[in-house]
Amino acid sequence: MERMCELEIGFSRSAGKQEALNELMSQIMGSYSVSDDEGPLVDAVEAFLKKQPHLTVRRHGDTLVASTDFGRARRVILAGHLDTVPVIDNFPPKWLEPGDPLIREDVAAGHEHERVIWGRGATDMKGSDAAMLYLAATLTDAKYDLTYVFYDHEEVAAEKNGLRKVVETHPDWITGDFAIIGEPTDCGIEGGCNGTMRFDVITHGVAAHSARAWMGDNAIHKAAEILNRLNAHEDRAIDVDGLTYQEGLNATLISGGKGTNVIPDECRVHVNYRFAPDKSLAEAKALMIGADAGAELGNGEHRATGGVFEGFGIEMKDESPSARPGLTSPLAQSLVKLVKERTGRDPLAKLGWTDVARFSMLGIPAVNLGAGSPLLAHKHDEQLPESDLLLLTNLLEDWLR
């Protein structure tokens, strides 16, 4: 696979805004940055940010924090992750001219006469990264002090998340009155986020030769009850502060057995629970496995004492809290007003997990606002019309000035 080396990020200061944004987008899209391989792109972004005399740039691992010191009374954080999910025959990227058959019908419907960039990361979330890089270089007269965070490992387990590591190691770098996460939202505001947890639900049996199955106890057969409980569970739509969050409880992987002629002695069903921000992480876990099951990340298997999976073995794999909408602060309300005036869009609930939850835990109100459709995130035909870059940049620029 072709990967760019010694990438240089920049744009001509004589270029128009759309041209400059397109140039930045081409550069960061052309850098392969699947989680664990963000380093070269981070290096290039760091070099670009350090060229801006009004920014103080710090780095921890592969996360960059660039801050202004304008002496303003309030500080706004703009954050975006630089990593992507694995490629699916969608790297390197390419610009598609109007009428190209690779342009999706739903994208073309609103952007008939403009170019579209196609490839991994176009919507999640290099479009927003390009807008933030442009602002980091050009916004030298903002009415707030600004902190730009470009971080690694957002698309994998929470333990690797670069923003989490910076918050834990250098909490003084991540302070502010309001935060914007550039996750794709079609340039509308999506408030809060669902929480998420992943865990194995485990059955045990006794191994035996399949010719003498009565000598064993089939763990895979026992897993039928796990699937029955999943099928019987009714996912709910829950209103939180005026926004509707859709919950989901699903099996995403299943494994068991050691041979084609061996009665399996263990089966694991991997379950993902997406829960609304009306409940804490502890409350969500109690609904799944009971309040006193004792199952925590890294402490092995424990028996569920209650909840949906009562009686089964549980091993926690990943967990992240939800976040309430965060739209009550004056900064959030002024941004909501501007987005409504420009786009006609009212805030929606963010159904996936995002790092607004991390800011919420820090007591910093945060919203999702980014370029591109969230419905295209992670798809093989990820793509972004060029006008989304301009719309997002103009919204943020006008709100920050």
Pick out its properties.
alpha+beta, 401 residues, disordered N terminus, single chain, 5-stranded antiparallel beta sheet, 8-stranded mixed beta sheet
Number of strands: 20
The overall pLDDT average reads: 96
From the spread of the alpha carbons, the general shape counts as globular
Which secondary-structure class do the elements indicate?
Answer: alpha+beta
Structure explained in plain terms:
- By secondary structure, the chain is an alpha+beta fold.
- Helix content is 28%, strand content 24%.
- The chain contains 11 helices and 20 strands.
- The longest helix is centred in the first third of the chain and has 17 residues, at 122-138.
- Residues 1-5 have low confidence and may be disordered.
Provide the fold topology:
Blueprint: H1 17-29, H2 39-50, E1 56-60, E2 63-67, E3 75-81, E4 94-96, H3 105-108, E5 116-118, H4 122-138, E6 145-151, H5 162-169, E7 178-181, E8 189-191, E9 195-204, E10 208-209, H6 219-222, H7 224-232, E11 237-240, E12 243-246, E13 248-256, E14 262-263, E15 266-275, H8 281-289, E16 302-303, E17 313-320, H9 330-343, E18 348-349, H10 356-361, E19 366-369, E20 383-385, H11 386-400
Parallel strand pairs: 3-6, 3-7, 7-19, 8-18
Antiparallel strand pairs: 1-2, 2-6, 4-5, 5-20, 8-19, 9-15, 9-17, 10-14, 11-12, 13-15, 16-17
Helix pairs in contact: 1-4, 1-11, 4-11
